[in-house]
Amino acid sequence: MPRFLLRIFLPALILLASHPAAAQLVVGQYEDEAPLRTWNTFGIPSAPSIGLGGAQFAKAWDSSVSLVNPALLVSLPRYSVTLTGAWAWASMFKYSLVNTGVVSSAGNLTAGSLGVEFGGLSLRSGGWAFSASAGILENYGRPGIGLQDSAQTYSLDMSQSGFLRDYHFAAARRITKNFSAGLGVTYVTGRRLRSILETYAVQGGRITITDDKSENESGVFLNGGIAWEPTGRLTAALVFRSSYIKKADARSALRYQAPTGDTDIRIDASARNEYRQPWIFGTGVCYRVSDAWTVAADMAFFGWSRYSAAFFEEPLNRQFRNVLKAAAGVEFLPAATLFGRPGRVPLRLGLSYDPQPMAVPRSAYVSVSFGAGLQISSIAVDLSAIVGRERGSGNSLTAGKVALTFTYIFDR
Amino acid sequence: MRILRSLLPALWLAAVLAVVPARMRAAENGEIVSVTKREFLARGLDRKGLDLLMEKNGKIYIVASPGDLAALFAARVPFSRETDRFFPFDQTGISPSGGLNGAYHSTLELETDLRVLERDHPQMAKVVELGETLEKRKIYALKISNNVSLEENEPAVLLVGCHHAREWISVEVPFLFGKYLLENYAGSPEIQNLVNRSEVWIVPIVNPDGLEYTIHVYRYWRKNRRFNADGSYGVDVNRNYAYQWGYDNVGSSPEPASDVYRGTAPFSEPETDAVRRLFLSRNFRAMISFHSFAQDILYPWGYVNAPTPKEAELDAIARTMSGLIAAVRGTVYAYGRAAGLLYTTNGDTVDWVFGVSGIPGFTIELPPVDVDHGGFFNDEAAIGAIFGENLPAMLYLTDYAIQHPSAPGGRAREWARRLFSPRRLGFIGRIDKVP
Questions:
Q1: Which of A179, A174, A171 is nearest to A223 (CA)?
Q2: Domain locations in chain A?
Q3: Contact B221, B214 (CB under 8 A)
Q4: Which residues contact B141 (CB under 8 A, 6 or more apart)?
Q5: What's the gap between Cα A58 and its chain centre?
Q6: What's the CA gap between A228 and B247, in Å, rounded?
Q7: What is the CATH class of A3-409?
C-alpha cells in the first residue's frame, strides 16, 4: 500500500483513552439496530408512569396503558385524549466505528431526541373500552461524528438516525366486576439510516468514499393483559406482548469516486432484513394504601435469548440472554384547591432496574424517577423525569428522559 | 538448451492460453470475433445487421451469435475468436449472491462456497480448518489434489489472500483459482497434469474478523481485530510473521494504533499462527500472498533492500509471471524486490516463507494501479477479469513447484519445523537468522 495513504489515514486514529474490555469487538449495548436508551422497549409510558419508574402494568392514568395492558382501559374515564412530549437522551461509548478501532473518543458521547412521543385516545362504553394511539416506540439515533485534519486533506463524517413509529388499536372488556381483559394490535413502521462519508485530497482532486445503509422497517404484534381487582385497593395484572419479526427492506450503497481517474465504483445491495423480537411477559400489582397514597410495581420478562437478526442475508452474531426488568414507585395524590377549584397535585417517585440483553458485558441501568402534576377538573398535566446509570460495561453509560403529558378527560 | 530455456515462458503461455478458453469454446451463446476492417467492408458485413462491438487497430469486433458464426464460416470470412480477451473467466461461476459486499465473499459466503466445492468434488477438494480467530471465526483452507484425502508427499503450492481486511479482491483471486482447477479438471489434460502431481492449498481469507469489520462497519479497516493494551484495535497480520519480525520501526511499527502494528510477538496472532502451522506441515514449494493495490509482483527481501541468494531465480519467475499476466489483456504488473519496488516491510508472509524454506514466494499486489483508479475498491464486474489475468501466472507457479520438488528449501523446511515451534520451545522473540 502506498505510504501516503498511511499518512492520510493515520490522523483518523485519534487514540485518547485507554479502555478495558473483556474480549475483542464487544460493542455491548449499542449494536447498530439497538434502540436508544434501552433494548427493553415495551410500550410508551406517559409522564405519570415514568414518575413511578415506568410501572404501569396494573395502574392506568391514560390511554398509553393500552400498549402494555389494554385490560386497564376499562378503568379509564369514558373519553380521554393524551399527548406526551419527551426529551430523551443516552450516552454511549462503543458504537459503529466509534471506539471500535477507527475513531476514538476520550469519553462517552451523547445522543438525544426531542419531540411528541405519544398521542392517543380512549373511550369506554358499557363494559367495553377502546383505544387508538400513535407514537414513537424506538429511536435509533447516534451521536454524529465529524473529523477533519487541519490541512483539510482528510475528512470523515458519520451519522445514524431513525425511528420506529407505532400505530395501535386495542379493545378491552370488563368480564366481571373485578376482572377485565384486553387485547391490542400494533403496526410498527420506521426507517433507519446510517451514512459514512470519507474524503481525502490527492493531487488534482478529492477522492470520496461513501457508505450508506438504509432500512424501511415494519411489523405487527399483539399485546394483551388481564387485570384482577380482588379488593377495592389491590389490582394485579398479567400482560404479554407477542414475539414478532421486524422486517426491513434494506439497501446499501458503497461508492468510491475519484474524479482524477474518472473512477466511479459502486457496490449496491438490497435485502429483506429481519429482526426477530422477543416475547414479553409481565406481571404487576398496584395497591392503594389510602386515598392519597398508591404504590405500584412491575416485573417484565424479555425473551432475548431467541432474538435473531438477519442482515443482508447473513445472521448477525448477537449473543443475548433473557432479562427481567423491574420497576416500582409510589404516588402521593393530595387533594388541593387550584385556581379556586378542587384538584390534585400528584407527586411521584420511582425506581427501575433495566438489565440489557447482551451476554457480554452484563450490563444494567439502575434508574430513579420523580414526577409531579396538576389535575384540575378535566385536565391533567404531568411532568416526570427518569435518570439511569449503567453498570457492567465499565463505561458508566447514562440514559434519561423528561416527559410532559397532557390529558384531557371529556367525562370524568 | 539456453534457447529452450528462454522459450519456456512462451511455451508455457501457449499451453495456458489453450487451457483458459476451454470453457468458452463450449459456450453456446456465441463468441466475440474480429474481422479486419478491410475484409469487413469487402464482404459487405456492414449490411448484414451484425452486432458490432467496436473498431480498434484496424479490426472490427463483432458479438457473433451461433448463427452469425455459422454464416461467417459458410462465407469463408477469415475471423479470429476474441472472446477470451474480453471475458477471461466465466463470471457466471461467481457464486456470492450479492450480500452487503456484492459479488465479493463474506466469511460465511466463502465457507459456503468452499463446502460446495468440497461436496461437488469429493475426490479432489477438502476444506480444512486451520484455526480460529479472536472473534471465533474459522480460518479455512481448501486443499486440492487428486486423492485429496491421502497424505501424499507431492510438491505443494500455497495461495493466500486477505491478510489485509480491506483488500477484498485478494479473496477472490485465490478462491477462483481453486474453483477453476476443480471445474476444469475433467476436461483439461493440462489441469489434470498439474493437480495430479501437486497439492494446491488455498487460504482465501486469512483475516476473517477484519474482513467482516470492513463489510459491516468501516470499509477501509486493514488489521485484524485484536484489542490492544492501549485501547486501540488490530495487529497487521502481514507484519506478524517471525522472520526479521520487528527488524526496524519503518517496515512495521511497535505502536498499537499504527496501521502496520506488528503485534507483541512473532506469531502472536491466531491468523499468522494458522498459516505458520499449515506451512510447516506440508512440502510447500511455492507460494503467493495476494494483496491490493498497485499491480506489482514482489519477491524477498521486504525487510531490507538487499538481494536474497536466489535473487536471479525469483526475478526470473516474477518476470515470467508478469509477462503471462500482461499477455492476457495487457495489464502491466511491475515486478521486483519488495523493499526496492514498494517499501520495506518486516515480519511479512513472503519474507518468512522464503526465510524459513528458501522456496519462491511472492506478494502479488492486484489491481488497480493507484487510488485514482479505485485504490482498495475494484468494480464487481472486474473480479473475473482480474482473476483471468492472474490465472496463467498461478498455473505457471504451480507447474514451477512441480518442476522443482526438492529444492534446497526442503532441508530448510525441516530446520524451520524444528526451530519455529514457539510453544514447544517456549520461544518468543525476534529471530535474527535462519539457515
A1: A171
A2: 3-409
A3: yes
A4: B127, B128, B129, B130, B201, B202, B203, B278
A5: 21
A6: 76
A7: mainly beta
Lowest mean pLDDT among A139-143, A196-200, B15-19, B380-384: B15-19
pLDDT at A3 over 70: no
* B226 → closest Cβ in A24, A96, A256: A24
In DSSP notation, A226-265 reads EEE-SSSSEEEEEEEE--EEEEEEEEEEEEEEEGGGTEEE
Domains of chain B: 24-86 (3.30.70), 93-425 (3.40.630.10)
Q: Which of B95, B97, B100, B363 to mutate to test the interface with A (most CBs of A within 10 A)?
A: B100
Provide mean pLDDT across the span B293-309. Answer: 97
- Residues of chain A by 3-state class (helix, strand, coil), percent to 5: 10, 60, 30
pLDDT digits (tens, 9 = 90+) for B386-429: 999 999 999 999 999 999 986 544 444 444 444 433 333 323 32
Cα A374 from Cα A406, distance rounded (Å):
10
> Is there a contact between A2 and B135 if contact means CB atoms under 8 Å apart?
no
Mutate to test the interface with B, among A267, A311, A319 (most CBs of B within 10 A): A267
Whether B365 sits among the annotated catalytic residues: the reply is yes
Cβ B347 vs Cβ B272: under 8 Å: no
Sequence-distant (6+) residues with CB within 8 A of A130 are A73, A122, A123, A124, A169, A170, A171, A172
Residue entry with cell 474482513: B211
Distance CA(B317)–CA(B361), nearest Å, equals: 10
How far is B102 from A253, CA to CA, in rounded Å? 10
What is the mean predicted confidence (pLDDT) over B19-27?
A: 38
Which pLDDT does position B232 carry in this prediction? 95
Closest CA to B362 of B328, B389, B400, B330: B400
Residue A167 one-letter amino acid: Y
CA angle, corner B111, sides to B110 and B114, nearest 5? 85
ipTM of the complex: 0.90
What element of type H or E holds B131? strand B125-132
A102–B106: do the CB atoms touch at under 8 Å? no
Mean pLDDT of B232-252: 97
The amino acid that residue B268 corresponds to is S
Which of A1, A263, A313 faces B374 most closely, judged by CB atoms?
A263
Residue B99 and residue A250 in contact, taking contact as beta carbons nearer than 8 Å: no
Minimal CA separation from A188 to chain B, in Å:
25
Helix (H) and strand (E) counts in chain B: 16, 12
Rounded Cα distance between B232 and B226, Å, is: 8
User: In the block, which residue shows the cell 502506498?
Assistant: A2
Which candidate, B167, B375, B166, B292, places its Cα nearest to that of A102?
B166
- Using CA atoms in the order A93, A97, A101, A104, what is the torsion angle rounded to 10 degrees? -50
For the ranges A126-135, A362-371, B177-186, B411-420, the lowest mean pLDDT is seen at B411-420
Indicate if the pLDDT at residue A241 is higher than 60.
yes
Nearest to A137 by CA among A169, A162, A111: A162
Is B209 an interface residue toward A (CB < 8 Å)? yes
Contact across the interface for A15 and B231, Cβ inside 8 Å: yes
C-alpha cell at position B260: 502496520
